[in-house]
Amino acid sequence: MKVSEILNASTKAFPSIEIVPPMRGVTKTELLESIAPFMEFSPKYINVTSHRDEYEYRQEADGSFSRHLIRNRINEATVCAAIMSKYDVEVVPHLICGGTTAEEIESKLDNLAFMGINNLVALRGDSMSGEKRFTPTPGGYRYASELVEGIRSYQGSNSYRRERGLETDDRYFCIGVGAYPEKHFEAPNLETDIANLKRKIDAGADYIITQMFFDNQVYYDFVEKCRAAGINVPIIPGLKPLSTARQVSVLPEAFSLDIPLELTQEIAKAGDNKAAVYKIGTEWCAMQCKDLIAHGVPAVHFYTMGKSDNITRILQECF
Ligand code: FAD
Questions:
Q1: Residue-level pLDDT at 157
Q2: How far does residue 45's CA lie from ligand 1's centre (Å)?
Q3: Which domains does the chain have, with CATH numbers?
């Protein structure tokens, strides 16, 4: 079932779970065990993030440099296949422009369609480590809106099916896109960023998932601005519980967001008590989640980042 159909059919908020593919070396059994705690809550779908390959250059004895793949992650489609082999749940792989040509994207779409996957989230992706700004791959897409256009122009298994006069479907994929209630860090202002978000919807995206935020008012104001700008698709809020004191400085830098003073003060009071910090972060997120549900959000998206304990506690309390 497509996420858009799930959203249309749903009468109350449901949780959606986002996982990060494991590093090479992790087994399929270990991956499935790591998501088992979420499956007890019968999520309607699982998002699987996508990561481009990263390389490092090593100097050889003769002074020359050789390129080496850094131990990378299992790709999103393989992780989706593993999940589908065990659980009866929809999977939503993420697809990024970074490091990929438009032709390679078509090939990825063919593979997803072959597996019967008709949901995805279309994203630009971040710059490579060491790169200040995102550089598009030659022959690739510059922005997520271009990727959405590319996906929409893909019709079923595309040229192969068209050439044989077989049925094709230009709405085969249900497409989610990302949005930033506190503005994407590269955008000059929130209004411009929202105008760029609208390009993704106009190109054919079906719904939006937001970046994490720690103050619900930021999300409510953002939704209001999106509606005023003519964006009428569902906007699913994204949450992540703080789990360590270090994240108070890491998350704002990594994701360009604010953490409310009240939360940072509570965490500072907990000092070196890691269990207390974890509890504060979990309770704060549960409070956000309950308030969002009370405000009638369609779903709440959880960035699990490989952790399940705090998220399952929140799911138990809120759903
Ligand atoms: P875009 O929508 O392309 O926007 C990027 C920037 O360009 C913005 O500042 C925007 O305002 C601007 N812009 C857009 N269109 C135009 C235009 N036509 N002209 C000028 N400026 C323009 N990253 C991963 O690598 N893998 C993942 O799996 C992943 N999952 C994510 C899931 C969610 C829900 C979210 C919110 C983010 C995720 N990210 C992921 C991070 C994302 O790739 C980065 O935040 C990236 O920097 C921006 O991606 P985007 O799709 O929002 O880009």
A1: 61
A2: 22
A3: 3-318 (3.20.20.220)
